[in-house]
Amino acid sequence: MLNFKNKFKNKFKNGFSLIELMIALLIGLFLMGGVISVFAVNQKTVATKRDLDNTQEAFRFVSNTVSRVVRQADSISSTSTGAQLVLSFTGATGLKNCLGQVVAGVQTDTFTYAANELLCNNTALVGDVNGISFLYGVDANSDGMITNAEYIAAPTDWTKVMSVRMSVMLTNGKTNSFTSTLRQKLINKYAG
Predict the structure, then answer these.
(1) Is 149 domain-assigned?
(2) Cα separation of 30 and 192, whole Å?
(3) 161 lies in which domain range?
(4) Does 27 score more than 90 pLDDT?
(5) Total domain count, the chain
(6) For residues 42 and 47, what is the distance between their CA atoms, to the nearest angstrom?
(7) Which of 40, 57, 139, 179 is 20 to 30 Å from the Cα of 191, by its Cα?
C-alpha cells in the first residue's frame, strides 16, 4: 500500500501531459468563443436599444411640439400643403411658438422638411427625418366630428379645417402619425 501512495504522489509531481494541456486549451478556446459571442450579441442589443430610444425621443419631441403649436393656433393657412404646415396665431399670455419663443402679436409658424430635418421657421427641430406629410381634418358636414375619410391633403375650404394629422418618417424606417386639433376653433364653434 505504501508503494501505491508513492506512485500516486509521483504522478502529480511530473506535471501535465501534452494531451491534457491540449484538452485544457481546447476547453479554454470554447469558453472564450462563448464569452466573445455573448459580448457581441450584447453590443448589438445595446446599439438597437439606443436607436429605438432615439427614435422614440424624436417622435415624442415632434408630436409634443407640433401638437402644442396646432392647439394654440387660430387657423391653418391656405398655403399649407401635404408637405408643409403653416399655422397662424395671435400672441397671448404664455403663448410660445414652435421654437419656444414667446409670441408677441400675430405669428406664423411653418413646419417643413428639408435635408433630412424637420424644420420650423427654417430652424431644424429634429434630424434623421426621411419625410413628413400632413392631412387636414375637414368638418365638411359641420357635425363637429371628423372621420378618417375627412382627412385630406388639399382642402378647398380652409375655414372648415379643424385638425391636422402628421406622419413622420425617420431615416431608420420607423413611421409615426398623430393628430392635433385646433383648440381655438372648437371653442369658437361651440362657445356660442
Answers:
(1) yes
(2) 78
(3) 37-191
(4) yes
(5) 1
(6) 9
(7) 179
